[in-house]
Amino acid sequence: MVIIDPCQRLNTIQNQLLPGMIKNAHEVEPSGIKNIRSAIEKNLPELEKNCYELAARCEKKWPECGEEIELCNEKRIKQIFQDTREKLDNIWKKIEKQKEVMENL
Question: Domain range for residue 52?
Answer without folding.
Answer: 39-105
